[in-house]
Design a protein that fits this description.
2 copies of one chain form a homodimer. The first copy, chain A, is α/β, with parallel strands linked by helices and about 325 residues long. Chain A folds into 2 domains: about 5-200, inorganic pyrophosphatase (n-terminal core) (Alpha-Beta Complex); about 205-320, Diaminopimelate Epimerase, Chain A, domain 1 (Roll), CATH 3.10.310.30. In chain A, about 35% of the residues lie in helices and about 20% in strands. Chain A has helices spanning about 5-15, 30-45, 95-100, 135-145, 150-165, 175-185, 190-200, 205-215, 235-245, 250, 285-290, 305-320, and strands at about 20, 50, 70, 80-85, 110-115, 125, 220, 225-230, 260-265, 270-275, 295, 300-305. Chain A has a 6-stranded parallel beta sheet with strand order 3-2-1-4-5-6, with helices on one face. In chain A, strands 7-8-9-10-12-11 form a 6-stranded mixed beta sheet. In chain A, strand 1, helix 2 (about 30-45) and strand 2 (about 50) form a beta-alpha-beta unit. The longest helix of chain A has 16 residues, at about 30-45. Chain A is elongated and about 65 Å long.
Chain lengths: ~325, ~325
């Protein structure tokens, strides 16, 4: 971000009055915190705004200041000429129903994000691919605008920073992440309370899914391959997408395991395979053998075959690389 | 800590040559990281040292620089005149076998700790009850001694800070915790790797215990009380003490649950009851009704009765407070 951008941002905010704040589908802590921090910023400037999301946000985020103002697209009839999208790497991430609310008359589309893949779909694009979270991009933006933060903004910015870094555990965590966290704490936020509400809270269905999936835990004879079969006990598609992915971390966590697998039965009788490795196996090669893809340490594929056949094929393939 | 203390510390280190570094029984990340940071400090000053612990440290800590030099008391024959104990709130925390290695001739006992309950058992006591970890006390001490840190010391200091704050989630996390984390990252440490090895690693027995305990998960009709029965599948007593306690966080994590319980069958046919609450129930009162104790949000008791009777009694008592 350069000086021109921050001036352009401020000029645009000042010149307009009705804002639509958009966060991404299946909203997580970073997109929610970013949207609410921007909302508080606009509120302080006496601007009107609507906060929209394709989906309903999870209950555990409702304690965040202004979170009660999130609405779904069916609830609004107005058309907006000014949009701020946060944490959306491309325009599809705003969701189909939200898209229908965007009139052709939009004159200003501000795109604030931290994804390296962001394709600059806005009329003003404030992107920092080095930032651990979009809330960090917003923190820097507001600081450069000489805008004094407050408790409400700090809670929301911290939420995005905490969730997108896995509470300062992921590889995107830098010394800057910690320096900003220190500054935000100085606004009086309670990090224990925020972490407890967001990171330590599961719906009963989530916990039942963890329980049922763990019950299927298996480890091969070598102790290097471990897997679970995900038993879905929930009808919410958003739940499935957001939470099933993390289950593979249970077999992955076992000391000595190199490759962890999750087998997830889909509704159309296919098996979705999630693969994780720790040190030396390139799981993208294993996924590629079944027309899947991914990275060295995290990959996946979908196979149309009965579960027992899929298990055998995948484990055989992994064994070649162990 | 005052200037006199840091000078006394440095003078004492300089005046002696053979150090015994002691960490507490059932060692955790803070006591291990503290011991190893002190070891590196002494190594840089060309001092001789032995690092001792009552128990064998867990495999997942063995990547820490100098961790391979931890030994158990049976492995040493020397007697020491200079001792540095880290993260031990009282002398009993060093362990019985370690105690036998302390000769009457000890002329210097340096006690470095952050527990508010520390009883100043040392001849030199460097205690900061406001520090989130003992490694933070050591960080401040070394800084005040104008001692330049290095990568090896930073990894160990970060390990204690990360583990004792639950990766910056617990209530002891302050802006200072984050500021120091930022400084330590600048020494080139890989926070993802450290967190992955320590926080995201379970022994197969630990994971089986999680699995078997979750299989017993129950929630009462109101959705406000949830419990698990801990099925021990492991003979290591240290494992039991360190890891079973955290299992109560699974039922506690359920949205809407106010009181979570873990029922653990002990070897002598008693039931050890762990209690956690979220917002308003004072679980210390429930524990007190069964001659137990604790705090408002975390308490426990032990009852000599069959499991089904204990469950009924405890849940009945909780129901009075819900």
């Amino acid at each position: 971000m350069n000086n021109c951008q921050q001036n352009e941002f401020l000029d645009n905010i000042r010149a307009n009055d009705n804002f639509l704040i958009i966060s991404h589908v299946n909203p997580d802590g970073d997109t929610i915190g970013s949207a609410l921090a921007i909302a508080h910023f606009l509120k302080r400037l006496n601007k009107k705004f609507v906060i929209i999301n394709e989906h309903v946000i999870a209950n555990k985020y409702l304690f965040l200041p202004l979170a009660d103002q999130f609405i779904t697209p069916d609830k609004i009839s107005e058309r907006f000429d000014t949009v701020i999208a946060v944490d959306c790497a491309d325009i599809k991430r705003i969701g189909e129903k939200v898209s229908t609310k965007l009139a052709d008359t939009i004159k200003l589309f501000i795109n604030i994000d931290h994804h390296p893949t962001n394709d600059f779909y806005g009329t003003l694009n404030i992107i920092d691919a080095n930032a651990a979270s979009t809330t960090l991009v917003i923190y820097n933006l507001l600081k450069q605008c000489d805008f004094e933060l407050d408790y409400q903004i700090a809670v929301n910015l911290y939420t995005g920073l905490m969730t997108d870094t896995g509470s300062f555990k992921y590889g995107n965590t830098t010394s800057q992440s910690h320096l900003v966290a220190a500054k935000l704490i100085d606004y009086g936020i309670n990090v224990y309370d925020i972490a407890d509400r967001i990171l330590e809270t599961n719906s009963i269905n989530q916990l039942k899914t963890i329980r049922d999936s763990l019950a299927t835990l298996e480890v091969d004879e070598t102790g290097k391959i471990a897997w679970i079969t995900v038993v879905l006990d929930c009808n919410h598609e958003s739940f499935v997408e957001n939470d099933v992915e993390g289950l593979v971390n249970y077999p992955r966590s076992i000391e000595g395991v190199e490759v962890a697998i999750s087998f997830k039965l889909t509704n159309d009788n296919k098996v979705k395979v999630g693969l994780r490795s720790k040190k030396y196996v390139d799981v993208s090669k294993i996924a590629a053998a079944f027309d899947g893809g991914g990275h060295k340490r995290a990959a996946g594929c979908t196979i149309a075959a009965p579960l027992n056949i899929v298990k055998e094929k995948i484990i055989d393939e992994i064994t070649k690389h162990i």
